Structure prediction request, 472 residues.
Amino acid sequence: MSQPAPTPVTSTRPPGTRRNRIGFGVGTIGRDMAYTLVSLYLLFYLSDVLTVSTTVFAGVTIVMVLTRIVDAVSDPFIGVIVDNTRTRWGKFKPWILVGLVASTILMVLMFTPNGLGDAAFIAVFAVIYVAWSMSYTINDVGYWSMLPAISQDQKEREKVGAIARICSAIGAFTMVIAIVPVSNAIGAAIGDMRWSYFWVSIGAAALMILFQAVTLLVVREDRTLLAEGEHTRFRDLTRLIFRNDQLLAVAVSLALFMIAFTTTINFGLYYFTYVYGDESMYTIFALVLGVSQITAFATYPLFRRFATRKTLFGIAIAVISVGYVVFFFAPPGGVLLVVVSGVAIFAAQAVLQLLMLMFVSDTVEYGQWKFGTRNDSVTLSLNPFIYKLGSAVASGIVGWTVIASGMKDAGDAAGMTEGGTTLVKVMMLIVPLALILVSYLLWRRFFHLDEKRYAEIVAELDARRGRQGELS
Prediction:
């Protein structure tokens, strides 16, 4: 007797679609404000606000790089724990809450001035930073691995992902735009710039708690996608990651891209202070770029009506490449060229980032089809792993460049040598562009999970669930 026709993909979409889209997206506004404060401005806070010694600055840079690498390796193991969690609140929310509470407390401690000597400062910083990194990872894995469990419909995922990325950009760029004027205003009011960042961190922590509460209270995962009795063992990690060829392909490509882009944005405040020569322009520049990125996220669904993911990926790579080249040749003070090239880079980056998030999410079903178990958290744990790896390498590049270019002791743009300025621009723009082009070539060569292949896999998974239901 012939098999019944596969159930359409959209049949598994849970009710409450709109509340899931908004509730999931809003949750990352505060998260990205907090993460941006640490990832982009912690080094600047130490070098230019606390004015720590070169020994301490080098020491904490090494701590940050090593911690992020080691912590990144732990992400898949946390993914296994989350995948095996079964509670009345689901498997994601308990870990989101635990990471939320711990990471906000530790973030505030990182921006609390102290009078410790060099060795003690590095030691205390290392303990707090390691603990913060681990707790943020718990929250991050829990949060992003919920995305595939909301819906397995590709278009719905893109809508949820687009809203989440819009909210992520709002959070990140709110911090980028506000950090200079707000910290300066607080510093002037209390008479101590060192404590201004402490109060900024308090505000970021409060907003992270507020917006994450919305996600915890509103979002509902589709539990029909997870078969009862599924259990992932730690010893299965190697198979689930390294034998999932499509996950591995997009992970390597995304890792190179994030190293490149994170390096560029980590140089931002340094660039406008020591190369462009006007720190106040950083806020205006960030505002323009923030609007560009949010616009790109918001219009992504419109472009998807007329182009495949592959086509959009290629266009975005071309735009970002032109942006990098123009930015490199823009003269100091050439505000128009800097802004135009920045818009191109950040708008294209938004499209690339959303596409890669969708590629990673789709490998959940590919892995389920290939191995027989659904591993949302193990698969999506590669996302924070890659971001932290990118952040680690970027911190190392920026930290080394700050010292090698003379920025650490220059005082301002006038104190920079021509060679030092060129070094900053090469490490900020040319090296990242090369990594992005390699990233694209690897993706084109090894990633083959397009829309048609994904639909075939989901149809087969639906058929499998139907047969299992008949047998039970």
Remarks:
- The two ends are 19 Å apart (CA to CA).
- The first helix runs from residue 17 to 49.
